[in-house]
Amino acid sequence: MYNAFDEALERIKRATGARTQVDLAAILGIRQSSISDAKRRQSIPADWLLKLYRSHGLNPDWITSGEAPQVLREGMALPVGLMEPGTSYGSDKPKSRAVTVSSMTGIIAEDGSLQEKPIEMIAIPEAFICPGQTIFKMEHQNMEPIVRRGAYIGVNKDQRQLRSGEIFAVSVPNEGFVVRRLFNDFENNRVILRSENPTYKDQSLKAEDIVGNIIGRVWWVLQEL
Fold first, then answer.
1. pLDDT tens-digit profile of 117-158?
2. CATH code matching the domain that covers 4-65, chosen among 2.60.40, 3.30.360, 1.10.486, 1.10.260
């Protein structure tokens, strides 16, 4: 039977996408042994609450007691930046803008950059527009149910710094453009590329190999329920 600490830990894992204590330690920037220490004390450390608020906008009261709301900052309610699951594609809404959507089968140049291949236009809310943004149509099932096949994803190419637990568009050698949740594995000098769909196995790249291959962070997703 779960106690209050275990329930709080499960809420943190669900909100951040962490599956293991190793994942959670990477997100919090701590040693795995620190999680064991907190479990022994049956208390969520205050610095965890601060870090999770800053990184994911999580409400400390929600973490410790389950009291709503889950998120205190707009735009960080889910592991994928901004998300409006019920928004209709190309809907005619006030303050919207037509934007170009590119295919995920664009050409990867020798320097790892992506040469985009436009395929269609859609209208999105002005609030979803940001500098350095590019929009793709998801062509794979590996990130379901978080990002479904056919969804539109906004990728912020100005945000390439790896932050454990967040979803990025990445150029992978011999595979091309993929979308994965990334985790730093400092002990083994590698980065883990994780799919949300459990039928897909984790991949990993040496830390030095992924430098320059991150296209950008997935900032929002538009998809139907």
1. 888 877 777 767 888 888 999 999 999 988 889 888 999 999
2. 1.10.260
